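Backbone shape codes
____________________
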Amino acid sequence: MADSRLAREVENRESAQRKQAWTPPETLPSPRPVAGWVFRWIRTTIMGQMDPTNASAKFREGWEPVKAADVPELMMFNDPNSNTRFKDNIEIGGLLLCKAPEEMAAQRADYYSRQAQSQMDAVDNSFMRSNDERMPLFNEKRSSTSFGRGNKS
């Protein structure tokens, strides 16, 4: 009985777990999550040229640059010698870290979801307009996924 207890004490979870597979690191670092906020990288330059149109459009949508002091864990990635107009913010490779309230981000996602659904409805209506009763069109939007061989022999 003492032998079985000893063996159990020597066992630990770490030795029983499978080794984790290597995965490539993220291209851009992610800040620690903050309750009520969503983070996103906004393009400020493209191919070495400033892109003020994209940045100003995102700012008008409600995205605001994150101050470098607010995310000290990302300070090491910031290049202090870069020629940028966002000196006090986190900018990596022409991308600026921005944040927006979760509510605004959810409303934005809902808006674009409705836009996409509206476009799909327009395509469906256009497709079904060419329907002829002699040879009816089918508008099925189902897909299936199968694995392995389809036959059972």
